[in-house]
Every structure is written in structure tokens, then in C-alpha cells.
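Hi Prof. W.,

I finally got the Acyl-CoA thioesterase YciA prediction working! I wasn't sure whether to trim anything, so I left the full sequence exactly as given:
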Amino acid sequence: MPPSPSSNLPPGVPTIRVVAMPTDTNPAGDVFGGWIVSQMDLAAGTTAAFRANGRCVTVAINSLVFLEPVVVGDEVSIYTKIIRTGRTSLTIHVETWRRARHTHITSKVTEGEFIFVALDDKRRPRALPPLEDTLPSTSHENA
Ligand SMILES: CC(C)(COP(=O)(O)OP(=O)(O)OC[C@H]1O[C@@H](n2cnc3c(N)ncnc32)[C@H](O)[C@@H]1OP(=O)(O)O)[C@@H](O)C(=O)NCCC(=O)NCCS
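And this is what came out:
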């Protein structure tokens, strides 16, 4: 039996899920890459804030690859996973998956590594709290 189209989806639930709309397109009519990156950044930032118990900023995007286009009407799901933590920083693996509207066919469209830094109220790097003190999140695994 051929594998299900969804068989390689990351485990767990996506951090965010959104439908690509006509306002999200580039002049050629495909969904604008910058819109997808902003969704990835939002999702990774949500995961970072849970782990850091507070404010975080993106300091770097280490890698980012666009594998397939996204088109209007696609359901766009962003999966995040913390793969590394330092004293103040977190590295988050982010995958974007599309599901074509009215189908069950899913495919991975982007993948990247985002680095966040936890900040204090003076916008300076802040040490991450111990793992046991962080807020539980259903959408990712903590490193
Ligand atoms: C994030 C920021 C506070 C870091 O300041 P900084 O003086 O470089 O801080 P540090 O040198 O102490 O580094 C803090 C952590 O970030 C990591 N870091 C800094 N620059 C990095 C880079 N380019 N790539 C990967 N990690 C980096 C350091 O390794 C360190 O991690 P660790 O504590 O886990 O070891 C500062 O660069 C900043 O405010 N940048 C702008 C952020 C922003 O506006 N983002 C867009 C909107 S969210």
C-alpha cells in the first residue's frame, strides 16, 4: 500500500495553522515567501516564549529552504521543535506544511532553524529558566 500523504508529518499538533488568502500573494499569484517566513517566525516565537516564560526576540535565522510553493486556499500548518538551548538562546526547528483545500494531501513546503534570545525588561539577554519552571505547551517538545 502506498504511504499516506501525511505519513511524514511532524508529531504532535502544529503551533499555528492558518489559511493562505489572496492578500498574501506575490505579483505572480503564489503566496509570498515573506508571508510564510513571518508565520514561521510567529510560531517559533510562541514556542520560545513558552520555554523562556516571557519575552524573546529572533536573533538569527540560520537556515531556511523553500521546497514547494503555497497557493491561495492552502491550509498552512507550522510545526516547531526546540532542538538546542544555551544560556539565553533557543534554536527552534520549524517546518511548514500545506494541505491543498478540499483534499487530504499534505506536503512540506519550508524548513528552517530560527534562533531566539530571552530578554529581560531592559531588553538584555536573560538566562532561560529551568525546564521544570516553564509553561506547558501541547505543540512542541522542549529541549
Ligand atoms: C538579541 C540581542 C539582545 C542579543 O544581544 P547580544 O549583545 O548579541 O547578546 P549576547 O552576545 O549576550 O548573546 C546572547 C545569546 O544570543 C546568541 N547569539 C547572539 N547573536 C547570535 C547570532 N547571530 N546567531 C546565533 N546566536 C546568536 C549568543 O550565542 C547567546 O546565546 P547563549 O546565551 O545561549 O550562549 C540583540 O542582538 C538584539 O536586540 N537584536 C535585535 C533583535 C530583534 O529586534 N529581532 C527582531 C524582532 S523580534
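The chain has one domain: 16-128. Does that look reasonable to you?

Thanks,
D.
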